[in-house]
Write a structure and sequence with these properties.
Elements lengths: L1 E7 L3 H8 L5 H4 L3 E6 L8 E6 L4 E10 L3 E6 L2 E12 L2 E8 L7 H21 L1
Antiparallel strand pairs: 1-7, 2-3, 3-4, 4-5, 5-6, 6-7
Helix pairs in contact: 1-3
């Protein structure tokens, strides 16, 4: 797995809450416009994600470790892994991982990590 990410000037718990808020995926995901989840945020929960162009694709959550990481299969294909690393002192790092075959997608993930970091920091500033 190849990863990219961004440091965040906010606690890891806040970054996690924003990252798993399906209603906000479109605010930071460059290729995502929206999402719906059919249950709790845990392994095996299914939903659908709206991608650029308005197409809705089914997904299933995989490898969820609350507060730390989650992955998913989109249309049955392993997709990005989402990670939050606690750096202590109210800081964290958000990262996205992709399979080696999807290496070019890291550039898109980098943009998403930067957007997510700004969103989390804006939320922290409002608290």
């Amino acid at each position: 797995m190849l990863t990219t990410g961004a440091e965040v000037g906010a606690p890891a718990a806040l970054a996690w809450r924003v990252m798993v808020d399906v209603g906000r995926w479109g605010a930071w995901g460059p290729t995502v416009r929206g999402g719906e989840l059919d249950g709790p945020f845990e392994d095996g929960t299914r939903g659908r994600v709206q991608v650029v162009g308005g197409v809705w694709l089914p997904f299933e959550l995989r490898d969820v470790v609350v507060g730390r990481r989650w992955g998913w299969r989109v249309s049955g294909v392993p997709a990005t892994t989402h990670l939050v690393d606690d750096l202590g002192a109210g800081r964290c790092r958000v990262r996205f991982g992709v399979p080696l075959l999807a290496a070019p997608y890291l550039a898109v993930c980098r943009v998403g990590a930067q957007r997510l970091a700004r969103l989390v920091e804006a939320d922290a500033a409002r608290r």
